[in-house]
Amino acid sequence: MKSVAIIGGGITGLTAAFYLRRQGVPVVLYEAGSRVGGVIQSIRRDGFLAEFGPNTILETSPKITQLIRDAGLEKRRLEPDPKAEARYVVRYKKPIEMPGSPLGFFTTRLFTPKAKWAVLREPFVPSRRDGKEESIGEFVVRRLGQEFLDHAIDALVAGVYAGDPCKLSLQQAFPKLAKLEAEYGSLIKGQILGARERKKRGEVAKDRASKFSFDEGLQVLTDTLADRLGESVRLNTSVIQILKTTDSWEVTLREGNREFVEEHGAVLYAGTAHRLADLRILAGDKPLDLKPFGEIRHPPVASVVLGFKREDVAHPCEGFGMLIPKIEGFKILGTIFSSSLFPNRAPVGHITLTSYIGGERYPELASLPPERLGELTLADLRTSLGVRGKPVFQHTAFFPKAIPQYNLGYARYRELLNQFEATTDGLFFAGHYRDGISLSDSIVSGCNAADRIEKHQHSGSPSFQNSNTPSFQHSISL
Ligand SMILES: Cc1cc2nc3c(=O)[nH]c(=O)nc-3n(C[C@H](O)[C@H](O)[C@H](O)COP(=O)(O)OP(=O)(O)OC[C@H]3O[C@@H](n4cnc5c(N)ncnc54)[C@H](O)[C@@H]3O)c2cc1C
Fold first, then answer.
1. pLDDT digit string, tens, across residues 167-213
2. What is the CB < 6 Å shell around ligand 1?
C-alpha cells in the first residue's frame, strides 16, 4: 500500500494520521512549523499554565471520547470544577451570570422586560421560507430583537469566532440554529424537541457538551499524538506543490532552501485556508483554482494571560468566564477564568485570567506590543472584575490569521472543496476551514478524513509497501 501525505500538523492532521496508522495505512505528516499542534500551545512558567490559543475541548461527539481513550490519555484528562458552570455576560460594565433556568431568565438583570417579552414571543415569529442566506445578526434581530443581538449574541459571536454577527452566515457558521427554525419553526421549540433526536444520534448540543482539558494543558493531546506517530512527523517541511501522476501523487517539499519531491498514494490537506491559496495542486490539464481561498477573512487575535494574587481581584471569578458585547465599550472580547475552570493553572493563592483582543471588532489592536496588550487588558479587568494590583505573571500570543470567518457566501468555498475531492482521485481536505471552527469539529473532521482515505487506500492500491517512508524521493534543487 502506498503512503498517505498529510499536510499540516495541527489537531486535524494529527488525528487523521493517528487513525490511519492504527488502521495499518502508512503516513507521512508534513508540518511547516518547528512544532506540532498548530494553534494549540501550552506553557508552564512560575507555576502558571498559559494556553496560547484554545483552552477547552467540547465533548460533542463520541469520536472525541474515543480519541482520548485511543491515545491513552484518560488519566491525564481534567474535568472542569463543577462550580465553573456559571457563564457571565458583561452589562452595565459588570459581569452578570447568564440565567440557567426559566425562572433565572425572568429575574435576570441581563435583559430588559422588552427583551424578555421578545424571547417569549419567539415561537410565534413566522419562519423565513425564501431560502435566502442571512447573517446571524439579521436572524437574531428577526426572531429575538435588537437587544438580544447587542447584549448577548454579539458577545457570543466574539467569544467563538472573534467575528462580526452582521457578516457571519447563519447557514454556514450556525447551521444548527438555521435547522431549528427550518424544522421546528422556532429556536425555543426546536431546542426542547430536538434534544431527543440528538440523544439518539449520540450527539450533544454545544451548550450542553462537557468541556475538558489535560493536566498540562491541551498541548498534551497534540504532543501525545505526535509521539505515537514518531518519525512519520516531519517538522520544518512545507508542502509547496502536489502533482497527480498516473497512479500516485508527487509532493514537492521545502526544507530550508532545499526543495525535493516525495511520492505518495493519496494526499490530505489539513492546513489552513489562507495557506491553501499559496499551494499549487496539479491534477489533469491545469492547476486547481485555489486563489479564492485567499479571500477568506481571518482577523488577527491576541491572547493575553495574566496572573494575579487572589486578594488583588475583587470578583470571585467562579465560573467559565465572561463574554463582552461591543456595546459595553471594552477593548477585550472576553475573559476565561482559567484557574477556576481547571485546577493547577495558578500557584496557591493566585488566579489566572485569559483574555482575547482583536478579532473583527478591533483587528488593529491584536498586533500591539505585549506591554500595551497587557495595559489594555488590565484596564478592562479593573473596571469589570475589580482587579486592584499589578499582574505577577503575563504571557501574550499573537495569531495574525486566527480563525476563518464563515461569512455570507462561505458555501462557495465548501462547494469548491467538495468538488475538488469528488473529482480528484486521492485528494482529500479536512480541518477548521471546512468542517467547523472548533477543536471538537477539527477532531471529528480528522477522524472522518481518515475513514475516507482508508477506504480509498484499501480499494485501489496496486502495490504494497509496509513502511512509513514515502514510496519515492528525489531532490529537485539545492
Ligand atoms: C486564539 C484561538 C482560541 C481558540 N479557542 C478555542 C477553544 O477554546 N475551543 C475550541 O474548541 N476551539 C478553539 N479555537 C479553534 C481551534 O483551536 C481550531 O479550530 C483548531 O485547533 C484547528 O486545528 P487545525 O489542525 O484544523 O488547524 P491549525 O491548528 O491551524 O493547524 C494547521 C497546521 O497546518 C500547517 N500547514 C499549513 N499549510 C501547510 C503546508 N503547505 N505545508 C506544511 N504545513 C502546513 C500549519 O503550519 C499549521 O501547523 C481557537 C482558535 C484560536 C486561534
1. 999 999 999 999 999 999 999 888 888 777 767 766 666 667 889 99
2. 7-13, 30-33, 38-40, 53-58, 238-239, 270-272, 275, 279, 301, 303, 399, 402-403, 431-432, 437-440, 442
